[in-house]
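# step 3/5: fold
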Amino acid sequence: MPASESSRFRIPKHRSHVPVARQRVRKTLADWGITDELADAVTLLANELVTNAVTHCRVSYSQIKVELTLNGPELILEVSDPDRDRLPRPHDSTPDEEGGRGLALVAALAADWGCRQEPYAKCVWARFELEGVQAHVPATL
């Protein structure tokens, strides 16, 4: 089993920084030896959750925190923003709507997901199972 490890970073709450978050997540996963479909799914959901945080957080000049935790047989992705009272809720999107499908995608690709209120933030998380994945934590981390 891989050892427990985590990686966290913050980005400014601006759409132009979403690709930076996506690239950082992809690099961390690659450093841990997580590639292929799982890396694609985690990166896609990181993109969705960061985009949601950037789009819906009403706190000006804030930062979005992204954290990946590798713990034994699971990987946890957490995206936090300081707008603690606006918890996400999935809704059925009509075919004509451009958005609104992100949480449905999270539910479809993650083993589990949810959100929680913290003292000064809200966190949306997704859990992935590493069954059959040969993840490793480099000694240099």
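# step 4/5: annotate
DSSP finds three helices and five strands in the chain.
# step 5/5: archive (pending)
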